[in-house]
Amino acid sequence: MELQMKVAQAVHVLNHDTESSNRVAANQWLVQFQQTEAAWEVATSILTSDHQPFPSDFEVEFFAAQILKRKIQNEGYYLQLGVKDALLNALLVAAKRLSSGPPQLLTQICLALSALILRSVEHGKPIEQLFYSLQNLQTQNDGIVAVLEMLTVLPEEIVDTQNTEISASHRNQYGQELLSHTPMVVEFLLQQSENKFQCGLQPNERNRKVLRCLLSWVRAGCFSETPEGSFPTHPLLNFVFNSLQVSSSFDLAIEVLVELVSRHEGLPQVLLCRVPFLKEMLLLPALTGGDVKVIAGLACLMSEIGQAAPSLIVEASAEARALTDALLSCVAFPCEDWDIADSTLQFWSSLASYILGPDVDGTNKKNVEGMFFSVFSALLDALLLRAQLDESTFSDESRTFDLPDGLVQFRMNLVELLVDICQLLQPATFVQKLFFSGWFSTNVAIPWKEVEIKLFALNVVSDVVLQGGQTFDFSVVMQLVTVLSSWPSDDLKGFMCIVYRSVADVIGSYSKLISTLETNARPLLLFLAAGISEPLSSNACASALRKLCEDASAVMYEPSNLDIFMWIGEALEKKCLPLEDEEEVVTAISQVLGYVSNKELQNNLLSKLLSSSYDAIGKLVSFFLQYLVYYYGSVLIFPFGVVASSCINWVVQNSSMIHRSKLLALKSLNQEIGCKGANKKSCDFF
């Protein structure tokens, strides 16, 4: 009794004392107490005795249940058989006694019970013993609540593979033993769903407990032996479906149905027949009233139904059309985050992959693609609208602006689906839906949010578009380049930096097509040169510059463009670019210099590029040549091109006096020269 009082006082101090030192001391004492042998008896007494020497606010009982759970988990295997039996009976008494208390307390007691059962191998069939006890408990007053909770917790503990203390063989044995009681449990849950037994619970609360228990058993595989044909008329399925129409049980009913659909092949067809009802009676009112909980739940369920059986959806029955129409509405629904739209993406991807894949034969493929053309066209519109930046973030004008994490993740998840949609609609149609010349009307402000998301979509499908071998009019991109280039640099902040970056991404992805006209070269170079200076767009612009130099050599290497490259190169020393971006820029410049056929011009350009570090380079070259003379007596025994190339490499590796961009230029130029076997170019420079 004295120890019980000490435990109660320590728990009260731990939870309520305002002095941190007192709380620390109480916690230390309780931790030490848990490790004692006396903790077994004290905790059991606290949970089972009706006469306590302290006022009951359930805090002490909760702590006692936690003690027993932890001690059973850590020491349960080593308890004597008689001790285990006594502890099992005590926990059952505690579960019944405290079933009307806080739900968390009953859950802790049931967790302790489950831990004890799973560590009672010597019983042979410990779950059999538990079910016998639960049947007795069920007949007692207030016992049903405890039975429901125990039937909920035990399957969860058995299927929890993260609990490595239970071996796989024992877990499998317990699972089979558990499922042997499925008929009894299903009957019990059915009786509870029909309210045949009064258990002191309100109907809504009782239904939630029944659904939660059913969910645990579904995850444990309770219907694995149930004939698929019996599902449509199964009374528990009807109970779950009806629970969708009750706000308090909607979320759990969704979880149960999603779990069932993912486990049983015949169920998607059964539930597909009920989709029109769900759409008319639940979804449309929720969309009108902005009920996010219902919309999110139905989007998840319908996506799971469609994803589990795409072959049913491509039949384009009235039910299938109702499902795709409902999910389109969910995608387009405006809400604070992107979770609802995101939850449908796997369905749309699986449907698109099914249509594009071998499961739809050649003769029927065109018909299916035709039937779903309008669906995926509408889906593209909805996704582009949903993936736009929200208005509050759009107004942010800081130079460190970036997209919200949730939107970034949503767009990452969109990539595969956008590629599939592009293939279904055909690249020409897809690109045509993205480009709209009305953006540049003098009477209407440019819708930059729409522009940015369409540039994103255009960028992610670039491989599909380019593989098609078709040419497109990318004049809209050049118009964007012209507009953004005309803006003062101070105005390019916040979201407009993201737009600038997106334009650069598209330029890089479609560099072969965009730069085919010589008149595009100079505006593109100036646009990218300006963007390299901005933190948010530097990487995209640097990468695009390199790709332009790789893919459009005939245009980029024109003498009229060389001054821009020199301007970019000379400015690198003043910029603090990330190494990756600097390497991209230097590689582009080196490619240009490496292909200049006029040797005198090439030397002049290289000298101009390296002028700020010329003295340092000269000293290093002189030192290197002296080094060769000292060790080899002369440099003339080597081909001069080899000497020059080796000298460049040595300078790059050993200089701390030269700006990084100059070293990168030397290194990159040497690679360009080496690749072409024209070492004489480096000789001319030296």
UniProtKB/TrEMBL annotation:
Q: List, alphabetically, the SMART domains matched.
A: IBN_N
Extract the InterPro entries matched here: ARM-like (IPR011989), ARM-type_fold (IPR016024), Exportin-1/Importin-b-like (IPR013598), Importin-beta_N (IPR001494), Importin_beta-like_NTR (IPR051345), TPR_TNPO3_IPO13_2nd (IPR057941)
Q: Cross-referenced PANTHER family, in alphabetical order? A: ARM REPEAT SUPERFAMILY PROTEIN, TRANSPORTIN 3 AND IMPORTIN 13
The Importin N-terminal domain covers which part of the protein?
26-93
One biological process term from GO is: protein import into nucleus
Give me the segments passing through the membrane.
629-652
Key word ATP-binding present in the record? no
Q: Note the superkingdom of the native organism.
A: Eukaryota
Name this protein carries in UniProt: Importin N-terminal domain-containing protein
Keyword flag Lipid metabolism: no
Keywords in UniProt for this one?
Answer: Membrane, Transmembrane, Transmembrane helix
Molecular function terms, GO-annotated: small GTPase binding
Q: Which GO terms describe its cellular component?
A: cytoplasm
